[in-house]
Design a protein that fits this description.
With 218 residues, the chain is α/β, with parallel strands linked by helices. It has one domain (8-211): TIM Barrel, CATH 3.20.20. The chain is 22% helix and 24% strand. The protein has a nine-stranded mixed β-sheet with strand order 3-1-2-4-5-6-7-8-9. It is globular. 36% of the residues are buried.
Length: 218
């Protein structure tokens, strides 16, 4: 493995908060947000992470994470896998004993991600404007410990997600999350659709936005 003292990543922010999404919702978590993303989803809420940031060695990142004294770490972006050294960071965090999750668009190859990491793959819907970027080969790298997420703009997105879940038999691979775009799709409406269709999914609302609104550091 590359030396942690000299291997660097461009980091937008490292912060401590409650996990607002996925099956880990509510858990005190350190978030490591990497800079940069090759996608431009219409509803993106982290566009501030497209550029800027600070170059930090992985050793420095580990030191900053350790200050928060928590078991859970989420590596996110942007698109974290856009930086190749992200793979080194993920393994280093696992080696340090953390329970690590990776939030990724699934547009980039996930085959080399450490198997100890919980991969949360965000399948892009037509409403995102980036549906063409989905790398369907990544589905073969999912395990029952991973999760698939659909962020839904409207009913057309919901129906599209239903077809993908059915055609790809996603419920046989790992847990599935459906999330409404904040301030766009009424969560109660999405809940009614899921109950009506008896989908094998978990609905989620971005808890951190309900608590603190939008913006960096949450």
């Amino acid at each position: 493995m590359q030396p942690l003292e000299t291997t660097t990543l461009r980091i937008s922010e490292i912060f401590y908060s409650l996990q607002g999404e996925t099956s880990r919702v509510g858990l005190p978590t350190v978030f490591v947000r990497l800079t940069g993303c090759p996608l431009r989803c219409g509803y993106c809420d982290t566009s501030y992470a497209f550029s800027g940031g600070e170059m930090l060695s992985i050793a420095t990142i580990l030191s900053q994470v350790a200050r928060f004294n928590t078991h859970y770490v989420t590596v996110t972006g942007g698109e974290p896998l856009a930086q190749k050294a992200c793979l080194v960071l993920l393994t280093a965090l696992c080696d340090a004993g953390y329970s690590v999750s990776l939030e990724t668009s699934g547009a980039l190859d996930m085959s080399q991600v450490d198997r100890r990491v919980c991969k949360v793959m965000d399948i892009k819907t037509p409403g995102s404007g980036e549906v063409s970027k989905n790398n369907w080969e990544n589905l073969s790298y999912l395990t029952p410990d991973d999760e698939v997420k659909f962020v839904l703009c409207d009913e057309a997105d919901y129906q599209w997600a239903c077809r993908v879940i059915r055609d790809k038999k996603l419920h046989n691979r790992c847990p599935i999350l459906l999330s409404p775009v904040y301030g766009n799709l009424d969560p109660a409406v999405l809940a009614a659709w899921i109950l009506r269709d008896q989908l094998p999914v978990r609905m989620q609302i971005q808890m951190h936005k309900l608590l603190w609104g939008e913006g960096p550091g949450h």
